[in-house]
Specification:
The complex is a heterodimer of chains A (187) and B (330). Chain A is an all-beta fold and 187 residues long. Chain A folds into 3 domains: 61 residues, SH3 type barrels (Roll); 60 residues, OB fold (Dihydrolipoamide Acetyltransferase, E2P) (Beta Barrel); 57 residues, OB fold (Dihydrolipoamide Acetyltransferase, E2P), CATH 2.40.50. Chain A is 2% helix and 51% strand. Chain A has a 5-stranded antiparallel β-sheet. In chain A, strands 14-13-12-15-16 form a 5-stranded antiparallel β-sheet, with no helix packed on it. A 4-stranded antiparallel β-sheet of chain A has the order 2-3-4-5, with no helix packed on it. Helix content of chain B is 34%, strand content 21%. Chain B contains 9 helices and 13 strands. In chain B, strands 1, 5, 6, 7, 9, 10, 11, 12 and 13 form a 9-stranded mixed β-sheet that branches. In chain B, strands 2-4-3 form a 3-stranded antiparallel β-sheet, with no helix packed on it. In chain B, a hairpin with a 5-residue loop joins β10 and β11. The chains are: A mainly beta (187), B alpha+beta (330). The interface between A and B is medium-sized, with 22 and 32 residues. β5 of chain A pairs parallel with β8 of chain B, so a sheet runs across the interface.
Chain lengths: 187, 330
């Protein structure tokens, strides 16, 4: 099993922490001129997304995590599992609600997502930063209002609900920022 | 061939900062010239290494064909050679030089850094503490820097910020305190009392030191004496000090140990500890022991990180901002 010593710690390094795959966010070298050195790290649990702080005695080793980020195309949802495919190899993986989480509301068939694989299995799904989705439900806006002031809720084809300007109508396609859940423009 | 999109050839310090560096070094030399302290140079490559198990020397050897392939060690500080000069009757001396410490890399550390080290014959470590503050305020005049200083014992600083007496507390006490402060620590056991002290010092106490003024922390646990004299008592205390500004360690000084036998015992204890930790053995400096046996005048010495002093003058947050080429670009 591959291991890393504290002197190899750097941000982005994938390691095992308390049985879960984790990614080092920040590593600070701490040492009194005379005395014990430490690595003080901020580290993200890749399953829960939670960031914790931990201090390692210098020279300690920690197990490496076999974690890779792969671009995959979202295929379909069969009611229980979401299916993704690597476009070059046609290799497919499936994942359930607990891994997809809130990303589900942005997943449109054939969009390319960033899938994080741990030992070959998906542990997190990042949808594209922006997606273009059709409005399937929204109140008819006030005619002639193009200012965009105020706004109204609109339900999109993937199930997400975003705030859109009053002029956006059912059937329109809109561009949305998936990180903030904000409407960007009509597409 | 890749096109020149790579900017790593460039210095990380601005030209302004490099000018300030030159200015501060010139002021240091003036400071000592006014006081009649002699500037000296000693070898950077030595046949003896640093035995301190927490310091990792670089080793070098000649690549010349047929050359003696014996290792030489890059100094982690010029301390041993400077004490040999003191024993030879040099009087008070100072040196500005590069020192090298393997594996020390980070926001406040570069494996190769610039040390200002000086020794004052006849000074007590308290007098030297005062001179460190005087030098720092003198060379930083006109730059943003503290104008005042406080002196606090190691014990009082721990009492103030951890409620623990660092000389009485056990590893279990330190561990319990770390837990109560929600410090999540890996790799320290109940046999690591000094490492626990260092953990609480660096993580909890240090951030409070040197706020708006210099803090001189002094009288360390005897187990952390390094090369300082230990004063008998209950508990015995190492006559050692550190100077801090804004939570950052700036200098480390000693009432210098002059007893050759005690020094030999410390070297041997260090080497046993290195063996226990599986660290490579390094030869200790027999020249230093011979010099101490000849007689070291009563003196105090201090090592000050010039890069960190420059960080203070530049309001820099990392050492890379004040050196031309940090480790990653050297």
């Amino acid at each position: 099993m591959a291991t890393y010593s504290t002197n190899e710690f750097k941000s982005g390094l994938k390691v095992m922490l308390d049985g879960d795959p984790a990614s080092i966010v920040e590593n600070e070298f701490v040492k009194p001129g005379k005395g014990q050195a430490f690595s003080r790290v901020k580290i993200r649990n890749l399953k829960t997304g939670r960031v914790i702080e931990r201090t390692f005695k210098s020279g300690d080793t920690i197990e490496a995590a076999d974690v890779v980020d792969v671009e995959m195309q979202y295929l379909y949802n069969d009611g229980e599992f979401w299916h993704f495919m690597q476009p070059e190899s046609f290799e497919q993986v499936q994942t359930d609600k607990s891994t997809v989480g809130d990303s589900a509301q942005w997943l449109k068939e054939q969009d390319v997502c960033l899938v994080t694989l741990w030992n070959g299995s998906p542990i997190s799904i990042d949808p594209p930063h922006t997606v273009v989705l059709q409005v399937v439900e929204t109140d008819p806006g006030v005619r002639g209002d193009t200012s965009g002031g105020g706004g109204k809720p609109a339900k999109l084809e993937t199930g997400a609900v975003v705030r859109v300007p009053l002029f956006v109508q059912q059937g329109d396609r809109v561009k949305v920022n998936t990180r903030t859940g904000e409407y960007i423009s009509r597409a | 061939m890749t096109l020149a999109t790579n900017c790593d050839w460039r210095p990380t310090a601005s030209l302004d900062t490099l000018t300030r560096r030159a200015q501060i070094i010139a002021r240091v030399r003036e400071f000592f010239a006014r006081r009649g302290v002699l500037e000296v140079e000693t070898p950077i490559l030595s046949a003896a290494g640093t035995t301190d198990p927490n310091l990792h020397s670089f080793a070098a050897q000649s690549l010349a064909p047929g050359a003696n392939r014996g290792l030489r060690y890059l100094q982690t500080s010029p301390e041993f050679a400077m004490k040999r000069l003191l024993a030879a009757g040099s009087g008070s001396i100072y040196q500005i030089c590069k020192v090298f410490r393997g594996d020390e890399s980070g926001r406040l550390h570069n494996p190769e850094f610039t040390m200002l080290e000086w020794y004052r014959v006849g000074f007590s470590y308290h007098q030297l503490m005062d001179e460190v503050v005087l030098l720092a305020t003198d060379v930083l005049a006109g730059f943003q820097s503290p104008q005042t200083a406080e002196k606090v014992t190691y014990r009082d600083a721990f009492l103030a910020h951890t409620s623990l007496d660092p000389h009485a507390a056990t590893a279990a006490d330190f561990m319990a305190h770390a837990q109560s402060r929600e410090l999540d620590v890996s790799g320290l056991g109940s046999g690591d009392r000094d490492a626990w002290r260092d953990l609480l010092l660096t993580h909890i106490v240090e951030p409070h030191l040197g706020r708006g003024r210099f803090t001189c922390l002094y009288d360390y646990p005897a187990s952390q004496a390094a090369l300082a004299r230990v004063r008998a008592g209950d508990p015995p205390l190492a006559e050692r000090f550190e100077v801090y500004f804004e939570g950052i360690e700036l200098a480390n000084g000693f009432q210098e140990l002059a007893d050759a036998n005690e020094q030999r015992e410390r070297f041997e204890r260090d080497r046993r500890e290195r063996a226990k930790r599986g660290l490579p053995d390094v030869p200790h400096d027999e020249h230093l022991l011979a010099a101490l046996a000849h007689g070291l005048p009563v003196c105090s010495g201090v090592a000050l990180g010039l890069d960190r002093l420059l960080m203070l003058a530049s309001a820099a947050t990392s050492i890379a901002e004040v050196v031309a080429f940090p480790w990653e670009r050297s």
